[in-house]
Amino acid sequence: MPGAAIFGIGGRMGQCLVRALREAAPQPGVGTAGSQDGLQLSGALASPSSARLGQDAALEGPPTGIAVTSDALAALRGASVAIDFSLPHCVWEHAQACLEQRTPLLVGATGLDAGTHARLETAARSIAVLIAPNTSLGVAVVTHLIALAARALGPGYDAEISEAHHRMKRDAPSGTALAWGAAIARSRGEELSDIAVLGRQGAFGPRKPGSVGFASLRAGDIVGEHTALFAADGERIELTHRASDRMIFARGALRAAAWLVGRPAGLYAMGHVLGLSGTL
Predict the structure, then answer these.
(1) Distance (Å, rounded) from C-alpha 84 to C-alpha 93?
(2) Is 204 helix (H, G, I), strand (E, B) or coil?
(3) CATH for 3-131+247-279?
(4) pLDDT per position in the chain (280 positions), as tens?
(5) Number of H helices, E strands in the chain
(6) 124-149 core/surface letters (b: 16 or more CB in 10 A; e: else)
(7) Strand partners, 182
(8) CATH ID of 137-243, from 3.100.10.20, 3.90.870.10, 3.40.50.150, 3.30.360.10
(9) DSSP class of 263
(10) Which of the residues are catalytic?
C-alpha cells in the first residue's frame, strides 16, 4: 500500500489526516490502518521546536508506529506522496525535500506568497505538485460552477466573495476565496490582481465595474463558509459552501493524494482530481 508522509502532523489538519487514514477500514490490533483511498501513514513531520518530536504521530487512539521527526527527508522515506498542511513559510523547504526524493506533493497550506507559488510552479516541472487551498470535494465542484457562472454572465454582473472562519485563522481573504476570485477573473479573461477589491472603508465611491470584492469574518470556531455572489439589476445569484466538520478536508486531501501517486510532473489542482480541469 502506498505510503503518505504528513507535513504539519501536530496541527489540526495533520491529526484529521491521521483519523481519515484510519476511518474507512480500521484494523484491530494494528495502529496504521489503510485509508479508503489506498494510502497508509509512512512519515510524520513537525517543526524542530515541536514538543511532539520522537513521539507517535497520533495524539489519540491507537499508536500508528510512526514517530514524529523534524527531518523532511527522513519523513519522506518510504513515502509515495507527501501532504503538506504546515505553515506557509515552511512549504518551499518541504518541497525541496520532495524534489530531492522525487516524491509527489500536495500542498494544502494556505497563505502562500507569490514567491512560494512561483517556486512550486518551477518544482512542478520535475515532480507532480497539487496546490489546494481547500481540499473539500464540494468546494472543487462549487469552484467549477462559479467559473461557469462568471463566463456565462460576464462582467455586467457584479461579483462579490464573502468568507467566514474561526478566530485562529492566520490569513485573509482565505485561500478558497482567492481561488474563487481567480476562477472568476480567468473566466472573464482578466488577472485577479487587476480587479480584486480586498476591503472597503470610508468614502471609496461607487463600485468599479468588473471588480471582484472580498469580505472576511473571523469569529468563534467557524470551520469555513464561503459565498460567491453575482448580482445585476433585478436579480442575485449566490453559490455557497459551508463546512461543519474539518474531516471533509482530510478525506478530500487523501483522495487527491492517492490520485497524485504515479502522476507525471506537472502542476495540478483539485479540479483535476474530479475531472473538472477546464475551470481550475
Answers:
(1) 11
(2) coil
(3) 3.40.50.720
(4) 899 999 999 999 999 999 999 985 445 443 443 444 689 999 999 999 999 999 999 999 899 999 999 999 999 999 999 999 999 999 999 999 999 999 999 999 988 999 999 999 999 999 999 999 899 999 999 999 999 999 999 999 999 999 999 999 988 999 999 999 999 999 999 999 999 999 888 888 899 999 999 999 999 999 999 999 999 999 999 999 999 999 999 999 999 999 999 999 999 999 999 998 654 4
(5) 9, 12
(6) beebbbbbbbbbbbebbebbbebbeb
(7) none
(8) 3.30.360.10
(9) P
(10) 165, 169
Collapsed DSSP state (helix, strand, coil) of residue 217: strand
Nearby residues of 8 by Cβ (< 8 Å), 6 or more positions away = 14, 45, 46, 84, 85, 86, 87, 90, 109
Q: Domain map of the chain by residue range?
A: 3-131+247-279, 137-243
C-alpha cell at 152: 456565462
CB 245 within 8 A of CB 223: yes
- Tell me how many degrees the CA angle 69-136-129 measures, rounded to the nearest 5: 55
Expressed in angstroms, the distance from the first to the final Cα of the chain is 30
